[in-house]
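Same chain as my last thread, 31 residues:
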Amino acid sequence: LPCGCWEPNSGPLEEQQLLLTTELSLGVVIN
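reply #2:
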């Protein structure tokens, strides 16, 4: 998805999902 093109209602949710996925991925790599 292009950065900054999310709707106000779906933006925070998708951003949170992305951050969660990134944290999980980094956790797997680190551990």
